[in-house]
Amino acid sequence: MQLYSLFDPVYGAQKLQQQNLSPEEVDVLEQNFLTYLFQMMEKSNFKTTTNEEIEVALAGQYLLNLPITVDESKIDKTLLKRYISEHPQENLPDFAVKYIIFRRGIGIDHTTDYFIMEKVDMIIARLWAFLLRLTKLDKLLSRRSRGHHKKEPKKDDEINPEADSEHLYVERIRLENMDLSIKNLVGKTTIQEPTFDRIIVVYRKASAKPNTERGIYVKHFKNIPMADLEIVLPEKKNPGLTPMDWVKFLVSAIVGLVAVFSSLEMPKADLWVIFAILSTVIGYCAKTYFTFQANMAAYQNLITQSMYDKQLDSGRGTLLHLCDDVIQQEVKEVIISFFILMEQGKATKEDLDLRCEELIKEEFGESCNFDVDDAVTKLEKLKIVSQDSIGRYNCVGLKRANEIIGVTTEELVLMARQGSISA
Fold first, then answer.
1. For residue 219, which phi and psi values (nearest 5 degrees)?
2. Kind and range of the H or E element at 342?
3. What are the boundaries of each domain within the chain?
4. Transmembrane segments in this chain: where (predicted)?
5. With bands split at pLDDT 50, 70 and 90, how would you rate the model's confidence at 382?
6. What is the pTM of this model?
């Protein structure tokens, strides 16, 4: 925590000046901090997002319907690049040299609404796809795009948090897969999207060389829909009209102008026909623009929600939370290992590992890879577990274990509180 105080975005620069460190020494401290941070993430069961996970997450749309990109000119590219070059990892996403996204846990988010504009867009998209199939242009377009695009992940791909864990399948319920019926189009619809239960983003802002920015941002989010992962990206650009919107504008304008000029060239130009054509074109352009404005409003609401509802903490608060997670997890590992040895008797390390995992599965319905090595090491340091000549571990009695461990800090605090209350 003292190390992070040097890189706190608010007060870190002042403390670095007080330490009077050279740039090379600060670089070493930065890399040390990142090393400890990655170790803490691993202990807290956070995983760095991979290319496959990002592709699956962004394979479709959920509530965010605008293309969100990061302003790379505002993101530092040296801090994480140096760390990754010294600590290479497999299958990191392309943006890993600019910012790192850690994730832990999978959940499900449901949203129920009328989705009027989205349903209109869905109908238009289906009509457009039907026309392409009717004119056989879809085959031509698919041939051209086949060589230029990678294989897109399916919209209901499996989300596999760990290679050695059981496959987790979460269905995505989307409007584009909805059956067309009056009830579905008029009534409320519930859509479903898997979420990242916890997300931590680490990055640094770019700065000019004379005033090099040393602050490292660590932001902690919860329950982020996978398809809306862009809302946690740092230094986002303000979204604009999508390329498809511009295509709609241009096509509408061209079609409208052609229709108007064709009407004017007729011997008897009907002003009402020209007015109807222009009204249709202007109306369609207005519809496209107002759809964009509605998407912008939804984007602003999502950003506000992510800041107030979904952002758990940042900086020092996030690190303290992670430290607490690590401590609690290690204590629980020790307790479970001791309980198994106390209840089921002697066991080898492999048997103890299996029994602990079975207990967690039976009692809590969760599968995990129990870290028995770390738990046994701590029990041996406490001198409440010993190993016999054939490699089996045995524990002392519960009363004797309490005597060996002695009074813990928490017990001292609890006794002090009780004493102050009684006084």
1. -115, 140
2. helix 316-344
3. 1-139+167-237, 238-313, 317-422
4. 246-264, 271-290
5. very high
6. 0.74
User: For the segment 172-203, what is each residue's pLDDT rounded down to a tens digit?
Assistant: 888 877 887 888 888 899 999 999 999 999 99
Taking the C-alpha atoms of residue 344 and residue 336, their distance in angstroms, rounded to an integer, is 12
DSSP string of 48-77, one letter each residue:
EPPHHHHHHHTSS-SS--S---B-GGGB-S
Q: Is 329 exposed, middle or buried (CB count within 10 Å of its CB: 0-12, 13-18, 19+)?
A: middle
Whose tokens are 């230094």? That residue is 235
Both tokens of residue 220?
Answer: 């902690």
The reported pLDDT for the residue numbered 179 is 84
Using a pLDDT cut of 70, give the percent of the chain over it.
78
Per-residue pLDDT tens over the stretch 337-348: 999 999 999 999
* CA distance linking residue 16 with residue 5, whole number of Å: 9
Neighbours of 207 (CB within 10 A): 13
Pick the CATH number of 317-422 from 1.10.10, 3.40.50, 3.30.450, 1.10.3470: 1.10.10
Distance CA 339, CA 342 (A): 5
Token output for 134: 């009717």
CB 281 within 8 A of CB 253: yes
Q: Are 219 and 205 in contact (CB under 8 A)?
A: no
Q: Would you give the DSSP letter of residue 187?
A: S
- Give tens-digit pLDDT for 23-70: 899 999 999 999 999 999 988 889 999 888 888 877 777 877 777 788
